[in-house]
Specification:
It is a single chain. The chain has 478 residues and is α/β, with parallel strands linked by helices. It folds into two domains: 278 residues, nicotinate phosphoribosyltransferase; 181 residues, Aldolase class I (TIM Barrel). 37% of the residues lie in helices and 20% in strands. The protein is built from 17 helices and 21 strands. The strands form five sheets. A seven-stranded antiparallel β-sheet has the order 13-12-1-5-3-19-20. Strands 7-6-11-10-9-8 form a six-stranded parallel β-sheet. The chain has a four-stranded mixed β-sheet with strand order 18-14-15-21. The longest helix has 24 residues. The protein starts with 11 loop residues before the first helix and ends with a helix. The relative contact order is 0.15.
Amino acid sequence: MVRERLALLADFYEFTMMHGYFKSGKKDVVSYYDVFFRNIPDRGGFALFCGLDSIIKYIQELKFTKDEIDYLKKTEKFSGEFLNYLKDFRFTGDIYSVAEGTPIFPNEPIMIIKAKTLEAQLIETFVLLSINHQSLICTKANRIYRAADGRVVTEFGARRAHGPSAAVLGARAAFIGGFHATSNTSAAMLYDLPLSGTMAHSWIQMFDCEIDAFVEYLRVYPDKAILLIDTYNTLKSGVINAVKAFDKILKPIGKRPFAVRIDSGDITYLSKKIRHYLDTHGYKDCKIIATNSLDEYTIESLIRQGAQIDIFGVGEKLITAKSDSVFGGVYKLAAIEDKGTIIPKIKISENVEKITTPHFKKLYRLFSKEDGKPLADLLCTYDEAIDDTKPLEIFDPISTWKRQTLTSFYAKELLMPIFKNGKLIYQMPSVDHIREMTIQNVESLWEEVKRLDRPHKYYVDLSQKLWDIKNDLLNKGK
């Protein structure tokens, strides 16, 4: 594989803007950028944040090599002084982020970058591509995990992914979203993920007959054996030969099969017939695995129909997020500093959804003291603090007459410091811990927010102070 040029992994306008700031005396101006998204994939009730691990590694390793600087020189767009500046480039700013696996909602900052303008500008593309891809897959995975209703789901998508990195990082994101294992050996090694795999139809075809293929496979892999039984005829040969092979190879040595797998046909009908045959021939403990272009809607439908599936293997529709393949995260300037004073900045648009929320901000999640469920998120300016010992009035930032006073609640600040003055100050949890916290976080949400179809809207409100600042900038038109 060609070495990734991560320092150059940026849109060219980022370099031309950096050079422009450098030449115009703005290279040391401190800027505040918000990372947020506008729409939840698949019209869901929430998304899940993922990608922080990649960003941490990128920031720690960010520097320019001689050949990268030589390439920029060949474009004839940059001065010698700027290219010399890049030789010693390092990120020296601050980054705040929500934790991976946190449920997130539109128009709230899930990451804030406070840094010198040139530094903040350079990292835009990598930050967005990391969050957009991995949050998309993590969100999709959790939808599938919830649709499976307690059954095991495994990620089988490597060969359908959009390149090697998408396959590996997608497998990690799927695990964080709730999946139990991956077939991607590289991802399993890199991130210590549970590994799962069976066999392909070609194994069966390599032998003179199906029974010989099954017998030989069981001889090689007698422990937790899985047989693929739909190469020729699932019911008339596949499951019958599987049982014969179990009886011949496993039973004499006191071992039990783990599962049989089907990858085609009417999954509900076949699984019921397979279950009956296995049960009546002494293999009630043998599980049934189903694959074949599954997603949350297909899985939900199969379960509703009574399909006897214990494990779902999900590939292309997960790893490509086929039903809604764009997360849509954006990176927008929210403020700059002038002699230590923070000056809020806003982007105004004819499209209301594209108007940004200015200023350096905090993000609070407000929870009910009665049941611990999130009630709403609240955006405040950086110097505000929520006193959850007193009643708090929140309101819809668009329909401002919609107001609610919270009394029995507690507030949790979601944005954590990750880098301070360019140094990592955050301890990345294990992927197992992140997955566990993700599942707990999602379980705490209202059932109405978790509906796959037409979920309840979860509100992200602004503090009165922040709303006033935004409204004042809107009225001034700048």
